[in-house]
Amino acid sequence: MDVKKVESSGCTAPAEYRLAASLAHEINNPLASLLNLLYLMQHESLSEKGSGYLKLAEGEVQRISQIARSALASLHDRETQEETDLSALVGSVVGFYGSKLHAQGIAVHTRYGPHRNLPVFAGPLRQAFSNLLLNAAAAMPKGGNLHVRVSGAREWSRSNGRQRCGLRVTFADSGCGIEKANMSRILQPFFTTKGAGGCGLGLSLVQDVVQEHGGSLRVRSSTAPGRSGSVFAMFLPGNLC
Asked: How many CA atoms lie within 13 A of 226 on its CB side?
C-alpha cells in the first residue's frame, strides 16, 4: 500500500492569511460593481429567457459575494479565541453538509470523543473543517464512505521536546487518493488538481489555521485500486491532561 505522509506544525502567523484577506477584499470590489450592473440590466428590455438567465447570474454573483464576506469575517474572527466544544463544532459542520453528502451517495460515519472545550479561533477552524469535508466529497464523486472522528490525543512538541495533550480531528475518505507526485505540494498555496474548478487555497488555508493554533496536520493517502483514500488528521493542543 503506497502511503505517504506530510506534516506541518508551528505557531507563527502565516503570510497566506494576509494573502487570503487581500484576495477576499479584491474579489468583493468587482463583485459589488457587477451586482450593480445586473440590477441596472433588470430595467432593460430582455426576452423571457434572457431575464431568466439574468436572475441566475445575479444569484450566482450574490453567492460568490457571500463567500468572500464569510472569508473576511472568518479572518477577522481569528483575533479572539473562544472556549469551544470541538466535537460540537465538527458536528455542526457535518450536519450542515449532510444533505449534500447524502445526495452524492456518501455515507458519513461519525465518532465524537470527549466533549471538551479548547480555546480556538472558531470561525477559521469551522472553515478549515468545511474545506476538509468538501475535499473529501470531491474525491468521491460516485459516492463512498467518509469517517469523521474527534478523539483525545497526545503528541510530542517539536519546540520543547515534551508531550502535550489535546484533541485530534480526523477526516478519512474512500476516494481516489492523492498521487504520490502531488503529496509534497498539496499544502502549497495555489496548487490544485481540480483544474479551472479550484483555486488551490483550500488546504493551504487549513494548514494556516492549524499553525495558528500551534497544532499539526498529518496527511496519509493511497491510490492503490480497492484501497484508495485519504486521511487528514488535525491535532490541536490544549490543557486536557
From this structure: 1
